[in-house]
């Protein structure tokens, strides 16, 4: 963050810029309605946090001193609070799930014909759901958050409670950076990101290291 931006926002850099900024990407707990195939998108739905064993495991994995950031949707906030035992340090709308527009709340089967007409199945990263946004657009806003966060919390642990699409967007940024290499955005959509899973990405001065993807509690 430049000195000019620091004066404008009142924000200053913290942490050691020589040390990796360690992002712990946490996907929220399962949304009951989504189990039937409904698209949650940006709808503000509560999640199931009854898996105490998984939550205990997450508490042991994530540093208690981590900066706690979350998407403003309740399923992300409540999951992060269950793990960290406190309120978020900040909420970022840029971390919200992809906006599926009028497909929100419907099942993939219900929107299949319309999705086919839009070319969604052929170009899932770039096709835009009606009144929504593409996954590529989501990737752009998540990338902007990452660049801000790696400056503001340089050298620290940062727990980001968010959504599956948001975490895939973070992986796209890690794999291609600002260059947005052709094909990477589509390829990361193949990653499985389970509920109550962790994906660890370290931001270094010379690049990015993907340390783990979809790490989760194993009974």
Automatic annotation (TrEMBL):
Q: What's the short name of a Pfam family annotated to this entry?
A: His_Phos_1
Composition bias of kind Polar residues appears in: 11-21
Region Disordered: start-end pairs:
1-21
- Mention any one GO cellular component term assigned to this protein in its UniProt record: cytoplasm
Task: Please give the InterPro entries that the UniProt record associates with this protein.
Answer: His_Pase_superF_clade-1, His_PPase_superfam, PGM_Phosphatase
Supply the name of the protein.
Alpha-ribazole phosphatase
Q: Which GO terms describe its molecular function?
A: phosphatase activity
Per its UniProt record, what PANTHER family does this chain match? BROAD-SPECIFICITY PHOSPHATASE YOR283W-RELATED, GLUCOSYL-3-PHOSPHOGLYCERATE PHOSPHATASE
According to the lineage, what is the superkingdom? Bacteria
């Amino acid at each position: 963050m430049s000195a000019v931006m620091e004066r404008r926002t009142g924000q200053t850099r913290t942490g050691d810029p020589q040390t990796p900024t360690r992002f712990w990407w946490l996907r929220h707990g399962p949304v009951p309605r989504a189990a039937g195939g409904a698209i949650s998108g940006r709808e503000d739905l509560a999640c199931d946090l009854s898996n105490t064993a998984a939550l205990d495991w997450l508490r042991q994995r994530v540093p208690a001193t981590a900066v706690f950031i979350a998407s403003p949707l309740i399923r992300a906030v409540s999951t992060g609070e269950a793990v960290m035992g406190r309120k978020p340090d900040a909420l970022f709308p840029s971390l919200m799930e992809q906006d599926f527009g009028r497909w929100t709340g419907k099942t993939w089967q219900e929107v299949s014909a319309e999705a086919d007409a839009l070319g969604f199945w052929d170009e899932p990263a770039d096709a835009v759901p009606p009144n929504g946004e593409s996954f590529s657009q989501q990737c752009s806003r998540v990338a902007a958050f990452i660049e801000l966060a790696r400056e503001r919390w340089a050298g620290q642990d940062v727990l980001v409670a968010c959504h599956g699409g948001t975490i895939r967007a973070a992986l796209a940024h890690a794999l291609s950076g600002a260059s947005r290499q052709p094909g990477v955005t589509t390829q990361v959509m193949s990653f499985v990101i389970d509920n109550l899973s962790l994906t660890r990405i370290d931001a270094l001065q010379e690049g990015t290291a993907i340390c783990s993807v979809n790490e989760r509690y194993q009974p």
